[in-house]
Amino acid sequence: MPLVLRTQVALPANYRPQDMLALHARDALQASEKVEGLRVSKGLTWQGLPALLQLEVVEGAAQAVASLAVDGQPPASAGPPDLQAMVARMLGLGDGADQLELQHAKHPVLGPLLRGQAGLRVPASSSPFEALVWAITGQQISVAAAIALRRRLIATAAVQHSSGMLCHPDATALAALTPEQLRAAGFSVSKIATLERVCAAVLDGSLPLDTWAAEPLQPERAEAIEEALLAIKGIGPWTVHYALLRGYGWLDGSLHGDVAVRNALARLLDVPSVSQREAEQWLGAFAPWRALVAAHLWASLSAKSY
């Protein structure tokens, strides 16, 4: 019988559940994530064990409730506080959204976008490892192609919860896949090599992604994580800043290299195109919320690109 952990998290009055729901509804086949109303059911790996997260925003109650059914017995040290911290990250909680709007709501260009998308927050993946794998998977391909590739990766890893829901693999399960299996799933040789390096670094302790997530991320720690990730061949600035955003809720990465961000910015500025350098300079004016501004730009195009 699965061990079931439960928690609840208070939500701000202006919370937008659609941001979190859209992230988990990207894959229409819903083999590892399912959205029904205001509830997300998601397969994940918890302390090396298959687990099913059910996360629901309670309409009108300004709170979210969550349960995690784990197949097996995780370490005693992993309990409701860890679940609550994970859920808070996944909901995108924090004061960055409100601070950005308070400071820049009257900006002549960004202000109307902020007011039109008031309360937008950036939902995170269930773990930094999942976020990093997603960032590597999405390198230089469309969102639709990345979603399909991620789906095949999860199916190939075949980590399954007793409910039948497939779970995103952890580093141990992903490292067990052969290059031939990953090639059959559609991964390029370069992405396979990058994933192998990441898994090896996580498993030997030189890339302690979960340890870094145990405390609120400060600029110095974010810089240290960035340095560690950039030292891995196959990982560049876009991958790092996207992983920091989706894995840790770090809102000050610069996503100027993102094509969708530049396209949205060009539309916002009413110009034919925006270069990476121009995007970097424009986003720089909104530090320490550059990644949150990028999320607003994504959302102005489509919930799926966001």
UniProtKB/TrEMBL annotation:
Organism per entry: Comamonas piscis
Protein name: DNA-3-methyladenine glycosylase II
GO molecular function: alkylated DNA binding; DNA-3-methyladenine glycosylase activity; DNA-7-methylguanine glycosylase activity
Superkingdom, natural source: Bacteria
GO BP annotations listed: base-excision repair, AP site formation; DNA alkylation repair
Enzyme Commission no: 3.2.2.21
Catalytically driven reaction(s): Hydrolysis of alkylated DNA, releasing 3-methyladenine, 3-methylguanine, 7-methylguanine and 7-methyladenine
Family matches, as CDD domains: ENDO3c
Pfam families: HhH-GPD
All copies of domain DNA-3-methyladenine glycosylase AlkA N-terminal, residue ranges: 8-127
Domain HhH-GPD: 137-302
UniProt-listed InterPro entries: AlkA_N (IPR010316), Alkylbase_DNA_Glycosylase/TA (IPR051912), DNA_glycosylase (IPR011257), HhH-GPD_domain (IPR003265)
Coiled-coil annotated spans: none
